[in-house]
Fold:
Amino acid sequence: MRQTSIGYSIDRAVELLKADELVAIPTETVYGLAGNGLSTTAVAKIFEAKNRPHFDPLILHTDDMDKINAFAVPLTGKLAVLSECFMPGPLTMLLERKSIVPDLTTSGLPKVAVRIPSHPTAQRLLSKLDFPLAAPSANPFGYISPTTPQHVLDNLDGKLSYILDGGRCDYGIESTIVEQKDDTIVVLRKGSIPVESIEKVVGKVTVNAVSTSKPSAPGMLHQHYAPRTPMRRMSIEEALQMYAPEQIGVLAWNTCNECIPTHNQRVLSPTSDLREAAQNLFRYMRELDQIDLMVITVDYLPEKNLGVAINDKIRRATII
Ligand code: TXA
Ligand code: MG
Structure:
């Protein structure tokens, strides 16, 4: 087993990545488990460390539009328009891939997912590399995505060499994934850029983030990002009919409940700010998961802007 350390050294991260080792990197959405995306050796290590099925392809990260041309066909049409507005930032695009991209990275699919993160540490790191980084969220497959270096260490200690510290992630939920089909933009994963923002730029889009038996973006699998403690959409009154107050956790939108012990409760945004709620969502799920609880109760947030993506995460994390 490797020793995993947390630090601020970009040079150390570069050195390890060039040697096909894995490094967790900060991005503005969530932490990524990064390796050389053009190296089958490094990509295989990512799948193994995450215990991720090989049918679930990875996103390639780079710092510069020009660098994309080395591994994917140039952007055209509405994707080019979107890239001008949202790249660098929490938007991922599917592009026709070039043969330099290993099959393992894209799970054999003809398109490759590409993203340019805006996080300054990620930018600095990527600018020193002449290959893109494959980086899925740095969590074991099926568990909650990490938004701090400590979250990565909690789950993947010994499975990677280094965690590059870039503080707490600004957005807190993953990037929005889009693809262009004919002249239409299709949203494949609801994420940090709301559909409304995309539609302001390119007009009406199709949202196709529905689970199927063979999902085109397995982040769409129904049960995903789930805590180990059962999380349920139920009222506190209902929960109290089944459990004692100290056995119940509450992930609340904007207020605490006086029937449940305060230390079992997390309020996503006391000021009802969706952006703040997104930033806190995964951290609070993890914190509640660390308490010995029988159930975590939650309800949907207002279904607009970032609330749509937050509700999508809640839907996938809850059991019926
Ligand atoms: O915010 C993010 O996107 C983070 C940070 C680290 O960049 N990354 C991330 O990666 O969330 P991951 O692997 O956890 O989720 C990527 C999703 C997966 O659901 C995968 O199936 C989908 O993107 N995906 C990747 N390549 C694809 C492709 N070629 N076609 C369809 N879906 C793809
Ligand atoms: Mg993920």
Observations:
- Residues 27, 29-30, 32, 56-59, 90, 92, 94, 106, 109, 111-113, 115, 135-137, 174-175, 177, 216-219 surround threonylcarbamoyladenylate (ligand 1) (CB under 6 Å).
